[in-house]
Amino acid sequence: MMKCDKIVDLRTYASINNTRKFFLDTNVLYWYTYPRFSLPNQLTRTAKIYYDFIDKLIAAGNPLETSVYNLTELLNVIEKNEYDIYCNLHTEIPITRKDFRKMLPERTNVGKIMKTSLNNAKGICKIIDFDFTQTTIHHFVDDFIKHRCDVFDYTILQYCIQSKNLNIISDDSDFSTMEKINLYTANENVLETTNL
Fold it and tell me: pLDDT for 24-35, tens place per residue?
């Protein structure tokens, strides 16, 4: 199993280099840009750690990036969360996600939330647009037993490695199985394994 080059505990890390570039994974974008979770008093303890860290990087002027694939995943997670919220508030009406998409008032509301989240992401990050190639998919399959990433995360991380954008902020433990990156995380399971 591969292992990333460096794992940094972002709970204790303080950036003194404001030119250091960081790449934000989807879970971090979700906590920072999604209106339902971007209010500090609404955040879970874990999400607040990432929220505060991103706030410090923005205040220091560190360049932040993410990719169109992270935004795609973010929009999917937002829609699912909004569907779950609707279902929890309307338990008397069992509906599928496809049914939820047919409800114009709800779809309009979800669309506004998505637009706000995208604008929030564009406000803090440079959005990287790159191709998802057959070559990368073949490499993913060839390397499959060497890491625990899904195909999207693998593709994103391969792009980061090729473009020398190696400082990745994520709570995803699978990222710790990818060589050549520096993982900035508060994921206690990942941090515990690095201290063994």
Answer: 999 999 999 998
